[in-house]
Amino acid sequence: MRSAALVFLSLAGLALLPGSAAALSLPDSARIDSAVKNLVRMKGGPPGVFVVVQRGDEVGLRTAGVANVRTRARWKASDHMRLASFAKTFSGATSLALVSQGLLNLDEPITVKRPDLPAAWSGVTLRQALNHTSGLPNYTEARELQSRLQRDPRSPLPPRELVDLVADEPLQFAPGTRYRYSNTDNIVVGLLVEEATGGSYDAALQSLVFGPLGLTQTSLPAGFRMPAPYVHGYDVQPPAAPQDLSTVISQSLLWAAGGMISTPSELNTFIRGYAGGPRLFNDAVRAQQLDFIPGGRSQPPGPGKNSAGLALFRYETRCGTVFGHTGNLPGYTQFAATSPDGASSVVVSVNEQLSPDIEGKERVFAALRRVYELAVCSALVR
C-alpha cells in the first residue's frame, strides 16, 4: 500500500439536481463532453469526473468515467465526496457571518479571542488568516504530522493540537506583507468561531451555513469513514491499479482547513449562496470579502487569472469573472465557482488528487483546468 504520508504531502492547502431546476442544453456541450472524456482517458487521469453548470433555474450535468472502480458505478449528483481545501470557504462563511453579527472583528488580533495561541502570533488578524497573508507556518508540512501519517493516518487529533504542531516555529513573514497559502490559517479561523459562539465549530456550521442554505448532506466528520453513497477517491499511478484512498486519513487532521464532505448538488447550492451575494452576511462584510490580492492563487490554481479575497478567490477567465475556490487531497480535487450575482455557477469534481505541483500530473491537471474554463464559459453565456 502506498504511504498515506506521501499522498498527503501534496494536500493544498481536495440525475438532475433536486428542486424545480429545468434541464439545460449547454452551449459548449460537445466541447465539454470531449474534454471530460479526454481527461479520464489520459494516462494517470482520474477514474471519473462530474460537472455541474447552472444558469438561473436551469441545470446541465456532464460526467465521464466512474465513481467506483470496482463496481463501475457512475457518479451521481447526490453522491458524497470529500471537499478538500474547498472546506475553507465554509470557515469563511461562518466567520464572516459572525463578523456581520459583531461577534468577530476582521482586524482584531487572533490572540485576543484565543490567548492560548502562541504569543508570536499576536500580530496576526482574522482578516490575514482568511486571505492567507498571516505568515502562519503551515501545519501540514510539519515533520511530526508526516510521521504520524506514516504510523497511523486514521488516528484522530483535536484541532488545538494541530496548531501545536507548528506552535514553536517562527512566522514565515511579517503579517500582512506577503501572500502565502497556509492550512493553519483556517484551523485558527475555526478556533475563533468556537470562541465567538461558545460552542463547537460543527454547531456554528449548522446554524450559520447549513440551516440558512438548506444543506442536509454536507458535514464535517471527525473520523475516516464516508456516508453512503459516496464517490471513491483514488491514487492513480499506471501501470499499477488505482488505489482507493477514500478512507485512508482521519478528517480530524484537516478539520476546518479541508475535512468537509458534501455532494455535487449541495456544493453547487453552497457556492451560489456564499459567493454569489450577501445571503449569509451583510453588504459591508461582503465588500471586504471581495477586496482581492492580485496573484494570490488557490491550491491548486483555478481557471484564468487568480486573486485572493477572504476565504474566496476571483478567477478572471476569457469568458468573464467568477468567484470560488479549489481544493485537493488524497483521492479528490474540487472546483466550484459562481458569477458575482449568483445567477450562474459551476462545480467540477474528480476522484483523484491533481495539481501542477504533483510530479507526473502536470499534463493531467492542465486538462482538468481546461474543463474548469469550459464549464465557466458555458455558465456565463447569456
Task: Indicate the structural class.
Answer: alpha+beta
Helix content: 25-40%
CATH architecture: 3-Layer(aba) Sandwich
Beta-strand residue percentage: 15-25%
The largest β sheet comes out as: 9 strands, mixed
Secondary-structure element order, N to C: HEHEEEHHHHHHHEEEHHEEEEEEH
* Spans where pLDDT lies below 50 across 5 or more residues: 1-22
**Order of adjacent strands in the largest pleated sheet:** 1-3-2-13-12-11-10-9-8
The CATH superfamily turns out to be DD-peptidase/beta-lactamase superfamily
Q: Find the count of extended strands (DSSP E, 2+ residues).
A: 13
Describe it.
The structure is a single chain. The chain has 382 residues and is of the alpha+beta class. The protein has one domain: DD-peptidase/beta-lactamase superfamily (Beta-lactamase, 3-Layer(aba) Sandwich), CATH 3.40.710. Helix content is 32%, strand content 16%. The chain contains twelve helices and 13 strands. The chain has helices at 4-8, 29-41, 88-100, 110-113, 126-130, 143-151, 159-164, 183-197, 201-213, 264-275, 283-289, 362-380; strands spanning 22-23, 48-55, 58-65, 81-82, 234-235, 243-244, 261-262, 293-294, 305-308, 313-317, 320-329, 332-338, 344-350. Strands 1-3-2-13-12-11-10-9-8 form a nine-stranded mixed sheet, with helices on both faces. A two-stranded antiparallel sheet has the order 4-7. A hairpin with a 5-residue loop joins strand 12 and strand 13. The chain is globular and about 55 Å long.
